[in-house]
């Protein structure tokens, strides 16, 4: 290796650290279908993975809903909660659609009320990066440090990559959550459907299982036979309703 052209060790470690963080986030969020649970996992993983970051928070704005908050440490949630005021680094990041950084909150003149609260928690540095999730949700991920000048330009690069990656992961979580809700609504409708409801009742009686499991048995049969669910239900109901020969 050419020592004159190789990157500084700190820079190399920063790249490796960021890559590890993104991998861990993917593994932690890939199977989740609850948005609030995903936010909690996001801030917890981020806090633990980035050197120099003592706490992490997320401020989420959802259309038609109150602002959402996630904090890696419960006492810190007030820093991201807009009920305490909207003049915050997170809201600046969301409004401006750009990263906001304050290296030393002890000398910071922006967000005076928020900065006073941050000081009470021992926060002396912050980076807020905007996160675009989907057409209904936007937000900001917030990195907090307990020492001034701890958050560097390297942390800014990490925050930028983190925000982009988190946006994609959270969008996928939202999509899975919508699909799950639609499937639940469909299940409720099917359970109340005449012949399908009767077939589910038959399976519940035969197997001693709950309605959700009985519906899954019907679906499995329809898939195996390559025929519509209603047709399977009709056949089953017809079979059990047919008079037996004495």
UniProtKB/TrEMBL annotation:
Keywords: Transcription, Transcription regulation. PROSITE patterns: ANTAR. SMART domains: ANTAR (SM01012). Pfam families: ANTAR, GAF_2. Residues 176-237 form the ANTAR domain. The keyword Phosphoprotein does not apply. SUPFAM superfamilies: GAF domain-like. Coiled coil: none annotated. This is ANTAR domain-containing protein. The lineage of its organism: Bacteria, Bacillati, Actinomycetota, Actinomycetes, Micromonosporales.
């Amino acid at each position: 290796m050419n020592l004159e052209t190789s990157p500084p060790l700190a820079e190399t470690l920063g790249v490796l650290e960021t890559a590890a963080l993104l991998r861990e986030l993917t593994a932690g969020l890939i199977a989740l279908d609850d948005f609030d649970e995903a936010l909690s996992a996001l801030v917890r993983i981020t806090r633990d993975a980035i050197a120099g970051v003592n706490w992490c928070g997320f401020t989420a704005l959802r259309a038609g809903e109150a602002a959402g908050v996630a904090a890696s440490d419960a006492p810190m949630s007030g820093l991201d909660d807009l009920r305490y005021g909207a003049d915050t680094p997170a809201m600046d990041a969301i409004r401006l659609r750009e990263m906001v950084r304050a290296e030393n909150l002890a000398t910071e003149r922006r967000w005076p009320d928020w900065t006073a609260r941050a000081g009470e928690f021992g926060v002396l540095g912050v980076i807020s990066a905007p996160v675009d999730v989907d057409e209904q949700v936007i937000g900001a991920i917030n990195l907090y440090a307990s020492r001034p000048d701890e958050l560097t330009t390297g942390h800014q690069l990490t925050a930028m990559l983190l925000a982009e990656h988190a946006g994609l992961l959270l969008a996928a979580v939202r999509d899975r959550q919508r699909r799950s809700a639609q499937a639940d609504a469909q299940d409720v409708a099917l359970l109340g459907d005449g012949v399908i409801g009767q077939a589910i009742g038959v399976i519940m009686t035969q197997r001693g299982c709950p309605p959700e499991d009985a519906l899954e048995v019907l679906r499995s049969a329809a898939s195996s036979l390559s025929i519509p669910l209603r047709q399977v239900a009709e056949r089953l109901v017809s079979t059990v309703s047919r008079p037996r020969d004495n």
